[in-house]
């Protein structure tokens, strides 16, 4: 097949896959996990059921693919923030705030069935480890420049940050999330 044809087919497949993921997420948000079927997804996406089954075997596979895309997007966003100019302490603050705001946003849906399905996925574990490593590396850099306390190992400090910021998922305002980040950062400063 000509190269242009292959690129066109691949682009079409990505578009269909993306539309299926987006449609499924909307249906679950509007109607709940248990009311979403492959037939309904196909109908709402505007494709045939047979076509849908070529892409995904079931609703769970679609949701896991959607969640994987969400995690990759969040990790990419955090990496962009981490890679900005500035010293390690400034970049750490920005990453922690972005992480806390993402946590607040993603837990605002309160769909325990969906969370139970998605959070057992190994992609979540890998994503959490990636965030932990990112924060640990910023902490180690900050320790090297004197902006972060050096009496606790960077791994332990990263765990402290992530555990402290889990509270962001229950906060209602961005101002409250920012205050939580400031309290977390206060625990990272070198002792006087």
Total individual domains:
2
The CATH class of the largest domain turns out to be: Mainly Alpha
**Rg, Å, rounded:** 20 Å
Quaternary form: single chain
CATH A-level architecture of the largest domain? Orthogonal Bundle
Distance between the ends: 69 Å
Mean pLDDT across every amino acid position: 89
- The low-confidence parts are none
Q: Please estimate the helix content.
A: over 70%
What can you tell me about this protein's structure?
The structure is a single chain. The termini are far apart. By secondary structure, the protein is mostly helical. The radius of gyration is 20 Å and the shape is elongated. The relative contact order is 0.10. The chain has nine helices and no strands.
Write the layout of secondary structure elements.
Blueprint: H1 3-31, H2 38-45, H3 49-55, H4 59-82, H5 88-106, H6 112-118, H7 122-145, H8 154-165, H9 174-186
Helix pairs in contact: 1-2, 1-4, 2-3, 4-5, 4-7, 5-7, 5-9, 7-8, 8-9
Write out key terms for the chains shown:
192 residues, mainly alpha, Arc Repressor Mutant, subunit A, Tetracycline Repressor, domain 2, 2 domains, 9 helices, 74% helix
